[in-house]
Amino acid sequence: MQRILFLAVCLAAMATAQAQQFVPMYSEVYNEKTGALESKEWQSAAGHSRLEYPDGSVTIFRLDSMAMYWLDPAKKTARAMPFSTLADPNKMVGRVVQTNHSEKREMVERGVDVEGYLCDHITVTIVNTAPDGSQSGGVEHMWEHEPLKTWIRYGSGQFTHGETSIRRNIRPGAQPASLFDIPRDYTVSRVPSLMDMQSGKGSMGGLLEMLGGKAPANSGDKQQSVQDAMRQFQEAMGGAK
What we know:
The chain is of the alpha+beta class. The chain is built from six helices and twelve strands.
């Protein structure tokens, strides 16, 4: 989930850049330490992304709607969440707070060989500052290969708790547009904020499934579930500073 949050923030930033180019491709992402497959990924020339996970779930990022969609093929459902909500913890908990969002990219080293690709090692620092001075965010590392306009290694920072991911089996080329569409027979709903759930306007299952990979078997204690979801979200965002 940490990489999903960070990817949403990066996609939102890229969408605002002028003449941003994307290289359509298929690739696979693995945990560098364990070798376990984390996701199969597709990217379109328009910048949309599709990630398929070993458990069968699917995430689609669309730049035209600036939203992430969490698909459950078995249930034929899609839960939508705007990039702006993912990037701002206050929106996740349902607070209407004017925050100052900042991102800073810094070059660490050029020409680093990663899996046979020459990459630039950069850090990205994301900080959300609330009016009371409280901050959330973190620092992440990426090893970017400019010709493919993507990262080859990602992680080792606060968002990923020191772990790194490696992109392999990269196959550039046009991808079917249908991969990035929400199927018409899917039921699309908005992922509720924690404040919605505290007031009884939404269920815990969707948010906890998105944050932790699956919903709790028994959500009898709603307040505890809300607290658990908030804790998971804070951990994913690097914790409060």
